[in-house]
Amino acid sequence: MSWHGVVLQTLKRNEVRLVPYVPDRVLTTLIRNLHADPFFTTFPAAREEEAVGIVSGAWMGGMRGAVLMQTSGFATLANVLASLAIPYQIPLIMFVSERGTLGEFNYGQSLVCRTMRPVLDSLAMEHHTATRLDEFEFIVDRSIKQAITTQAPVALILSPLLTGGKVFDK
Amino acid sequence: MNSANDNPARNTKLMNRFDLTSRLIAKLKNEEAVIGGIGNTNFDLWAAGHRPQNFYMLGSMGLAFPIALGVALAQPDRRVFALEGDGSLLMQLGSLTTIASLAPKNLTMVVMDNGIYQITGAQPTPAAAVADIVAIAVASGLSNSSWAADEDDFERLVEESMLAAGPTLIGVRIDDKPGTGTTRRDPVQIRERFMHGMGVREPL
């Protein structure tokens, strides 16, 4: 199974239905397949922060969700993580397609990428960088379950080693 | 620079946030959810009488409507109200398009518009002298958006929204008074009680 197939199937198995996103090239197939599957309610949000607000409200209403974004989008989230997800104990599940490393061609992307793990670590947030398909389902499934049972957010960073990343085309 | 009062869009009655919030709460008979945006908006919601179906934000400026959208999607049979300040909404105007595209019929949004950041010292917002929040909402695809002319009109618009076929946005022009209460800043209890109010969990 492909990495995006693992994401879709593992979300479904864990009853995670609501998937707002701000898109990324690497996430294209996953987003298309989520739209095609009637199990999911998936749609674009204007900002990652907005998507975090939506899934937080849905959680409190009894519906599980996850947010898809890229690295630069994660960089807009420090305030909402520190003021909503963490203090209110919301099991926010984030998939972050990692840009800025292993062949990045945009200097700004490589710089903003360096802020991501320090922000996660400064808030003592659970995060994993997925690099291998053979352990990916374990990471995704266990991370979703841990987020829900411990009522704490988690960031799953999708390395170019897993996804192939985005390479310079034009 | 024009003052807020020169803006021709602001020709409706100047009302009061606490009074309007109290009028709204008095109309709720079916465990409707109410999401209160940061600062004075949720202080007045708190002061209007705590209900387990109230959610009070303590940060995350601009996310009252997105949080309410999430509740509305999770519980399509429950009416969800969101109370937001004009300055807060300016932080997240894009969310209006998301709500318009999903079109939840159980969502009523109220924008408390005083044209100022009251809580930080009453500085005017960048929109105050030039923009019309309701016109922005309409242009974002929320066709069922209107200014309340006065308190009676506000109550009428609230009642209409409960029967509407799509999301409703009500703009109210308010005075520069601060909030009348102060929400107890205990995020875990706020969230847990709200989930009890939503019927998602039982108390321990």
UniProtKB/TrEMBL annotation, chain B:
SUPFAM superfamilies in UniProt: Thiamin diphosphate-binding fold (THDP-binding)
TM ranges: 55-74
Protein name: Thiamine pyrophosphate enzyme TPP-binding domain-containing protein
Thiamine pyrophosphate enzyme TPP-binding domain sequence ranges: 44-171
Keywords: Decarboxylase, Lyase, Membrane, Thiamine pyrophosphate, Transmembrane, Transmembrane helix
Recorded GO MF terms: carboxy-lyase activity; magnesium ion binding; thiamine pyrophosphate binding
Pfam families to which the protein is assigned, alphabetical: TPP_enzyme_C (PF02775)
Entry's Gene Ontology BP terms: small molecule metabolic process
